[in-house]
Design a protein that fits this description.
elongated, mainly alpha
Length: 148
């Protein structure tokens, strides 16, 4: 059975979502670093400690975001190769995108990512995609084994 186009499209959409989710990482690092530096310039000892904690929180948050994006990238490629577990993992990431969008309803990029995740989910759970994933036979060449 050949991979259906719906599954290929869902995989590419989720790849794009993972890459787009990486955009705020630099903003988080810059904002929390900015706070840490300027609090430390003329602050009391307690204010400096709070500024450092904010800076460390920003680094931790950025690290988690990078790890989540890497996991989503790997899962999107594995979904393309026919792994059922990847569809479940990517569905969980779509639910997380919903929670993020609801956390601050004013951020348009969160809503764009949410819509993209929903479209990818609908495509990944279509009948042809489900039949392909249920068949367990993968006659396509995995992305990692394609040679030039």
């Amino acid at each position: 059975m050949h991979r259906p186009p719906t599954l290929t499209a869902a995989s590419w959409i989720w790849l794009s979502c993972a890459l787009a989710a990486m955009l705020p990482v630099s903003n988080i690092l810059a904002a929390t670093g900015f706070i840490a530096v300027f609090v430390g310039v003329d602050g009391t000892e307690e204010e400096v400690a709070v500024g450092q904690a904010i800076g460390l929180f920003g680094v931790a948050m950025a690290t988690v975001m990078v790890l989540a994006a890497v996991i989503q990238l790997v899962a999107a490629v594995k979904l393309r190769d026919g792994a059922r577990w990847a569809r479940v993992l990517l569905t969980i990431s779509a639910v997380i995108a919903l929670v993020v969008a609801l956390a601050d309803i004013t951020v348009a990029s969160s809503w764009v990512l949410l819509v993209a995740n929903i479209v990818a989910m609908v495509l990944a759970y279509s009948d042809s995609a489900s039949d392909y994933l249920d068949s367990g036979r993968d006659l396509t060449v995995p992305a990692a084994r394609v040679s030039a």
